[in-house]
Structure formats: structure tokens, C-alpha cells
């Protein structure tokens, strides 16, 4: 084997190829003729003279130190310049040739990549794969043999004396099973997948109705909000601030806002404004719900003072399960309209919550929230549930009942109903089935916080903000307009089922006029009513008024009564 096949270099640390062949005795190359020595150049003589001059004067102290400094500075500049130049030249040559120096550590020449790295580089250079498809909750069916699978309502009890509404049986799963069935994914939101809310600082009043808190949406904006599409931005209260409840009207302390934003599961909420109701504690709540559900009671400053004066509220701002959140800068003068803010906009106050249960303050919750969610949302594969009115099904009949009961100004109710009639609202008939009613009993709302249900409550609130606060009148028009664009449905369950998990109470003003109950074992004494005095009669006053004696009604004694007349004796 020759040295050429070994790939020996022409020069290197092991000697040249010519030297190895000469040692082996061969001379394959001809010897070059001898070159005569050349005369040293003049420059060499000048350098030799400069060297001798330095050696002559260097032993002197001052000159030696100066020369040493000059030499050191020259060496330093030379090293800096040469090193930078070499690195720059190497980098430029590497970029031109596609080869980068190994100390860059980030990009390597493609030829030096091993075969097992080819797939890695290809995956880095190729675009990332599309995200996996979103998963949605699609409902479930109870296993065969479950008592709730074939449950049907029994006939109402035959009690002719009681004709009003009453609760009916409801089949709930045990709390543990209901918690285990809580969906891991949200429900599908038909029609809209992205919902944002309008934020404005400079507001101008609309054609009629509305408020600064609601943003005064125009009729054109109202019509556009019912054009359901994938990405939407709508008015939904809190328009003056980027954060709901912070300098927007309906303001809440930052400490409470932080806790509310940390609620990521289930929220149970209620509200009392104007000290109109008493706080009622939820009953039959599981320990899991007590530790994981956010129970919030919104109150105004008047109600806060009432609770403190009655020694119910202390510095902990808790009453039983309820966490008390004081609301400042209320947007409306009407407490009923203020109550619609948390009732319909809980998704704005709790932006990270998944489910919410609204309960009017006059109601007492007596069933665990997870059992209610399982029964009326998850089992029905619904994202919104509300009970229908126990007696009325038609909006126009409901409006007339509101006017008779003086629930609101009659002219405003007539204007709202006429407006809806012109938009196409018709009286309820069986032709609207499977829609079971146009009138809800809005004291309880069960909701999943997804875009379509949030859109529904936003638009429902906008109607309450523009027209009257009687939300039963505006419910059907909002629902029907959304249903025209999507296949979204909601669960309107029976009112007797609602009365199964909440107990109806009375407002505080009614309870305070009731006499206190007698102590145990005491005999109740009923006093007769005071006499009625007609002040229009002359010379009649309370001092000379004499009540007429009560006529005694004779009672029959039957056989015990004996005649006092003696029998006439006939002599015989």
C-alpha cells in the first residue's frame, strides 16, 4: 500500500512526504540546483541598528520604563485588533460557505447533522400542527335501573281547598353522584363562539330609554346585537370601565373583586337593596359545596347599615354561608332595577366561573347546588334553565296583570308591549310548541357561562335597561330573536319543580307588620276590633259614642229544657 492511498498530507507534524521517501532510499524527484546566497537588504540593516540603539539606552531607568509601557500598549492593541479581525473574518467566511463555527452553539452546518437529527430539524422548520379540535359536553343518559331514569310526576293531591301553586316531587341524584357528573368541558355555543363587551367613555343618549350604566345603545345597535354571528361585541352594562365593578357604577371593593375573579366553579348569588328583604340561609348544603361554591349576597349601603344595627353583620362580612359584598354608586334609583344587574350579569361579575345559580332574596335554598345543576342543566344538556310561570303563559296577559297589580307605570308597560307587537311578538298558542311558555318565573336562574347564554342575558338586560324592569315581559322577545338565528334552546321547567328546591318567603315590610308569635304554652287572646266612628254625624265623638249592646243569640237546650208552666188540674 502506497502512502498516497493512506491520505498522508504533504506537510504536517509527522514530517513531509519527501523526507520519508528519502529516508527509504528512493529519490523520485530531481534535486533543485543550488541557490546562491542573497545580500541582506538595507531595511534589515536599519532594523539591526534600531535594535542596538534600544539595547544601549534600555538600561536607563526612565527610558526603559517608557519603552516597556509603549511595547505593552502596542502588544495589547495588536492582540485586540488581530483577534477581532480573525473572528470577524471567520464568521464572514462561515456565512459565505454555509459553515458556522462550532462555538456558536445554535446553528450547525447541515452536513454535520447526524441522521437521527434530520427529523428534529424538519419538525422545527415545518409549521406547527393545527390545534386539536375542541371537545364539548354532549350530555349523558342515566344508567339503566337508576330511580330517576323513568321518574314521572305523580298527579297533584286532591285538595279542593288548596288551589294555589305548590311544590311537586323532583328526582335528584345523591350529592356525590351529582358532583362526579360535573362536565369537564363546556357545552357547545351555537351561533357565537367569541363574545366581548363594549367599553365607552363618551356616551350619547339613544332614541329613548337606557342609562349611562347600560351605555345608551341606539336602536341600530340593538338590532345589530340580535344578528348572531361567530364573533360579537355587545352592550352588557359596565360600559364605563375596563373591569366590571371598578369605577363603572355598581362598584365593589377591590378585595371582593379579587375573590370574585378567583371563583372558577359554581356561584350562588342573591341581592338585597333598600333593606327590602331578610337574609335567609341555604339549607341541606353538602360539605363539598360549602368549601367549593361561592355564596355571594350583594347589598347596598342602606342594607349594610340595617344588618350592622341588627347585629347580624360584623367585620368578617359574612353571615352564615353568605359572603356580603357591599355595592357603591348604584346605577339606578329604583332598587328593583338595581337588582337586575347581578341577576342577569353574573357572568360579568364572576368572569371565570363556569356555572351560576341566581336566587331571589325572598327565597330560601333547600337543595344542594350540585344536585340542582345536575337535574336541570347537565341531565337535560342545557346551558340555561328557568321555571315557567305557574298560571300565565302569554306576555300580553302578563302585562295586563302587571298593570292591575300596579307593578309599574301603566303607560310604560303599554309602550313596551306595543313596541314588541310591532316587532312580531304574538300571543302564546300551542302552535309555539315545543316552547312551553312565553312568561318565566324569574326568581331563579340556572346558567352555564358560555357565549350564547351570556349573550342572551346581556340582551335581556338591555331590554330591562331600555324599557320597564319587569323582566317577564321582555323575556320572550329576546329568546325568539336569538332562536331565529341559532338552534339554541333553553330548559323551561315546571314552577312546582322550582318550589321543590326553594321555599317562598315574604318581604321584610310584610314580616314586620305581623304580630310576634305568642310564647310557647301561652293562650292567645283575641281582642275585638275598635268601634267604627262616623265623623260626619253631628255631635258624635269618641267620648260620647256608645256601642249598642250585642244581642244575645238564644241557644236551644234540647231535651234539657223543661217547661215551667204547671199543668192545669181538672177536678174529677
What assembly state would you assign to the polypeptide chains in this entry?
single chain
Give the biggest beta sheet. Answer: 9 strands, mixed
Percent of residues in helices: 25-40%
Q: Whole-number average pLDDT?
A: 79
**In angstroms, what separates the terminal alpha carbons?**
186 Å
Structural class determined from secondary elements:
alpha/beta
What is the approximate shape?
A: globular
Structural account:
The chain has 572 residues and is an alpha/beta fold. Helix 10 (335-344) packs antiparallel against helix 15 (451-466) and helix 13 packs antiparallel against helix 16 (471-485). Strand 6 (318-319) and strand 7 form a beta hairpin. The protein contains 18 helices and 13 strands.
Task: Identify the notable features of this structure and list them briefly.
single chain, 572 residues, alpha/beta, 9-stranded mixed sheet, two-stranded parallel sheet, 13 strands, globular, disordered N terminus
Question: What's the layout of helices and strands?
Answer:
Layout: H1 17-23, H2 42-57, H3 61-97, H4 118-125, H5 175-180, E1 194-197, H6 219-225, E2 231-234, E3 251-252, H7 254-261, E4 266-272, H8 287-292, E5 294-299, H9 301-309, E6 318-319, E7 322-328, H10 335-344, H11 346-349, E8 355-359, E9 363-365, H12 369-378, E10 384-388, H13 395-404, H14 410-422, E11 440-448, H15 451-466, H16 471-485, E12 491-493, H17 495-501, E13 502-504, H18 508-513
Parallel strand pairs: 1-2, 4-5, 4-8, 5-7, 10-12
Antiparallel strand pairs: 3-7, 6-7, 8-11, 9-13, 10-11
Helix pairs in contact: 10-15, 13-14, 13-16, 15-16
